[in-house]
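Please decode residue identities from the backbone states below.
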């Protein structure tokens, strides 16, 4: 599965003009104008983003930066990206509720948690 994801990301990254990782650095993704192709690029970038967040032991924090950096009007790249982030959010909703309950419990004990 990982190889398929890497192959998909590699193919998609070649379809857009980008230097390095558009997720990890300051590189920008340029839509190709082909909506279907742009959605594929967005999906590949979403998988790259999700892997980065999954590997981050300090928790999430880059999604607001990514959204802020997205061009307007929204293209297939952004649609593809958010579609897959939404699927992942749904799949991880149970865990998110557990984390929220923990934060609520800690807050009731007087601990402070920053979320972004």
């Amino acid at each position: 599965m990982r190889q398929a994801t890497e192959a998909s990301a590699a193919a998609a990254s070649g379809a857009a003009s980008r230097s390095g990782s558009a997720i990890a650095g300051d590189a920008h993704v340029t839509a190709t104008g082909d909506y279907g192709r742009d959605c594929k690029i967005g999906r590949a970038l979403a998988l790259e983003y999700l892997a980065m967040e999954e590997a981050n032991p300090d928790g999430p924090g880059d999604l607001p930066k990514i959204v802020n950096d997205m061009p307007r009007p929204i293209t297939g790249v952004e649609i593809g990206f958010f579609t897959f982030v939404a699927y992942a959010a749904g799949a991880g909703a149970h865990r998110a509720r557990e984390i929220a309950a923990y934060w609520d419990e800690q807050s009731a004990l007087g601990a402070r948690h920053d979320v972004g």
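Observation: The chain has five helices and no strands.
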